[in-house]
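User: C-alpha cells in, sequence out, please.
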C-alpha cells in the first residue's frame, strides 16, 4: 500500500455501477471503469486513488489483508465472510432482503401470530450461498439445520430434492415465484457498505475520514433530493 495513494476495491456485478457513480460524484472520477473489459485495476493519479475490481464475495478478503485500503461490499457478504475489517458507512444502494423460502407444497402451518411455524424445519437441509447467515438465523431460534453451500441458482435445490428449503436474497420476488417457492421467514435486510482495512484506517486516517465525510454529504444530498 503506497502511503499517499488509496486503493479501493470495487465489486463487479450488481453493485459496480452505483459504486462508480458514487465515487465519481465525490470527485474520484472513475466512470471509465468497466467490468466488461478484462482490466482489473485502474490508476487514477489525479485523485491519488487506485481502483481494483474483485468478485463481490472476495472484497472483504482483499481489504482484510490490506491489498486494498477500502472496499465496497453488501452487508450480506460482510456477515457471511466475517472478516476483520472496519465498517465505515452505509452507502444505502444495493438494497436486498434475505429470506427462508420453501416449495408451495411443503410450507409449514401458521402460528396464531400469523408467522409460519418453523419448528418442523429443525435438522432439515438448507441450500444457500450464505451458510453462516443461515446457521446464525436458525441457531438464534434454538434450531439446527444442515447448510448445503451452492454458488448460484439456489432456487433449484428444493425443486430437485437437494434441500427442503433455501436461504437466499429476494429483490423483486420474481425468481421465487417462477420456481413455486414461498417466503416463510424474513432474516435480514442488507445494503452496501464502505469497509476499511484496520491498519490503513489508522495510518491514512485523515484521508479516509475526508473521503467518508464527502460520501456522507453526497448521500445526504441525494436523500434530500428524493
Ligand atoms: N437481487 C439481488 N441479487 C443478488 N444480490 C443483490 C441483489 N440486490 C442487491 N444485491 C447485492 O449485491 C451484492 C452483489 O451481488 P452480485 O450478484 O453482483 O454478486 P454475487 O453473485 O453475490 O458474487 P459472486 O460473483 O462473487 O458470487 C450482493 O451481495 C447483495 O448485497
Ligand atoms: O427476487 P429477484 O429479483 O428475482 O432476485 C433474486 C435472485 O437474484 C439473485 O440471484 P443472482 O441474479 O445473483 O443469480 P445467482 O442465482 O447466479 O446467484 C438471488 O440469489 C436470487 O436468485
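Assistant: Sequence out:
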Amino acid at each position: 500500500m503506497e502511503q499517499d495513494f488509496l486503493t479501493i476495491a470495487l465489486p463487479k456485478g450488481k453493485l459496480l455501477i452505483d459504486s462508480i457513480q458514487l465515487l465519481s460524484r465525490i470527485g474520484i472520477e472513475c466512470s471509465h471503469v468497466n467490468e466488461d473489459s478484462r482490466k482489473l485495476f485502474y490508476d487514477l493519479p489525479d485523485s491519488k486513488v487506485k481502483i481494483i475490481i474483485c468478485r463481490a464475495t472476495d472484497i472483504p478478503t482483499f481489504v482484510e489483508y490490506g491489498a486494498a485500503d477500502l472496499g465496497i461490499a453488501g452487508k450480506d457478504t460482510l456477515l457471511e465472510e466475517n472478516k476483520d475489517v472496519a465498517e465505515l458507512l452505509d452507502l444505502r444502494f444495493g438494497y436486498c432482503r434475505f429470506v427462508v423460502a420453501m416449495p408451495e407444497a411443503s410450507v409449514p402451518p401458521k402460528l396464531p401470530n400469523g408467522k409460519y411455524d418453523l419448528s418442523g424445519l429443525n435438522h432439515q437441509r438448507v441450500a444457500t450461498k450464505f451458510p453462516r447467515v443461515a446457521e446464525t438465523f436458525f441457531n438464534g431460534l434454538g434450531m439446527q439445520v444442515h447448510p448445503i453451500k451452492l454458488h448460484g441458482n439456489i432456487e433449484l435445490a428444493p425443486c430437485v430434492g437437494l434441500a427442503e428449503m433455501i436461504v437466499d436474497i429476494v429483490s423483486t420476488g420474481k425468481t421465487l415465484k417462477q420456481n413455486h417457492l414461498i417466503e416463510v421467514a424474513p432474516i435480514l435486510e442488507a445494503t452496501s457498505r464502505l469497509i476499511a482495512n484496520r491498519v490503513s484506517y489508522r495510518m491514512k486516517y485523515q484521508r479516509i475520514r475526508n473521503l467518508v465525510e464527502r460520501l456522507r454529504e453526497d448521500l445526504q444530498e441525494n436523500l434530500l433530493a428524493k
